Amino acid sequence: MKTLSTEILVIGGGAAGLSAAAEAAAAGAKVLVAESDLHLGGQLVKQTHKFFGSKDEYAGTRGFKIADILLSEIDSCKENVEIHTNTTITGFYSEDGTFTAMRGEEKYFHIKAKKTIVATGAQERLIPFPNNDLPGVYGAGAVQTLMNVYGVVPGKRVLMVGAGNIGLIVSYQLMQAGVEVAAVVEAAPRVGGYWVHAAKIRRMGVPILLRHSIRKAVGDQVITGAYITALNDRFEPEGEETYVDCDVICIAVGLSPTTEILSQAGCKMMYVPQLCGLVARRDRTMKTSNPDFFTAGDASGIEEASAAMVEGRIAGLSAAADLGYPTEHGKLDEYWGRLQALRSGEAGARICQGLECVLVNRWEDVSDD
Amino acid sequence: MTDALDLFNSGVLTGEREGAVLPDRKLWESKKGGVVIIECPQRIPCNPCHTSCPTGAIRPFADINDTPKVDHSLCTGCTLCVASCPGLACFVIDLTFSEDKALFKLPYEMLPLPEKGQHVQCLNRTGECIAEGTVENVTQPKKDRTYVIHISAPKGIVSEFRTIRVVK
């Protein structure tokens, strides 16, 4: 079986992975990017809204344009970057330090890398309810892919479950595509996403029902409606169920980090609720307890894409520095300054709490259990 | 929990608060071109309103998470912040438009685009139609498909009217 070799393997060509690749390649390292999708860009390519943050994180620029900016940055040092799209890293074997990879569904090969940056992103969470296997129940990511990558609307009238940033933004994008949003239900007593994203759809007449959730989907062959209900303080259904006429139920109840490769590489993992799941412990350079593995982006904890891009830069910079490539003095501190700025708002407080649990100052001080 | 708090927590502004402070009414009434009204009451890491402001009316941010602060006396109503704000939370309202009508310059990213002279529905913060307005101009300040629609509408709805519905 063919074996590819590289200095730095970046797993995942999304916001974090592309930033890591750009940074490492600019420092002079040879980088191989493995992306399971047909195109690079990850979730960025589906984001038609303008990003928050500061100019350094391309604030005010639409997400898909940011993907273009990162790709052109990579293109400017293309002699150092090898891109493999449609390529899934299926496993890591620590016995001989080999990755198994699959292009499409037929071609298998091995990859060996001196350093690896795991920027595998996240998976959507789903919630159980009767009939959630009927056609018409979608994850929000699928709705975005259908609409914003392939130009296909998912239906005519949507019930959105979850008022985090994804639920709010996808509701707005659905309306832009001419799809009606019947309501957004949110179990918490307030919207989880940015207030301004909620205001945008409220003023277009979309009800956001706080302390509400879906009870069951209705339909014979496909979704024709849903029953929703109010929740009490213990998140238990309360009062009568209300029928909502809809042909799509879109689930946007959160994400979990994708970290299997890190576990296989023996990285010390920790379950951190504030980071939305199992993540690798890491130091300030985004290095894990396995000194050849770095982590960045949603794989290291669910956060905004703006933070993922900065984390990717830190990981790329650190991996290149570990290989002996000269990197600009003070850049790490500059990137941390940017992360701290991004994390000092309301949503950032939770992230910081989570990071306090996983961030390692000195690996020598971390016990083995 | 009160209804007003629930309303706010679902994304509807309920009264003035930090990040959503109205201009001094006298100053507002005297400003040709209008002044910006910002409705951004939550600390989030975002500052394009300030960085896009050519006159310094939207004050510099000490911390990028600060809610925006405006010196309305410096605002010319240019609408660059209206087109730049990722949260569509900036609106320019010109009270000098006519005796009984104000000119609202509102961000718009929907289809179809209205045309000059067209009548549109004026919606409040929960999407209720509260009046009819007339489109006076359609601009695209940043050439990035966030449009700014200029609508003349009754002065009585300045504290309520925040977006339009184009009826085919």
UniProtKB/TrEMBL annotation, chain A:
* Keywords attached to this entry: Oxidoreductase
* SUPFAM superfamilies for the chain: FAD/NAD(P)-binding domain
What's a single GO MF annotation on this record? ferredoxin-NADP+ reductase activity
Q: Where is the FAD/NAD(P)-binding domain?
A: 7-312
List, alphabetically, the InterPro entries matched. FAD/NAD-bd_sf, FAD/NAD-binding_dom, Metab_Enz_Cyan_OpOx_G3PDH
Q: What is its EC number?
A: 1.18.1.2
Which PANTHER family does UniProt cross-reference here? ANAEROBIC GLYCEROL-3-PHOSPHATE DEHYDROGENASE SUBUNIT B
User: What protein am I looking at?
Assistant: Ferredoxin--NADP reductase
TrEMBL record, chain B:
Instruction: Return the InterPro entries for the record.
Output: 4Fe4S_Fe-S-bd, 4Fe4S_Fe_S_CS
Pfam families given in the database record: Fer4_7
Q: Which residues form the 4Fe-4S ferredoxin-type domain?
A: 66-96
Q: What is this protein called?
A: 4Fe-4S ferredoxin-type domain-containing protein
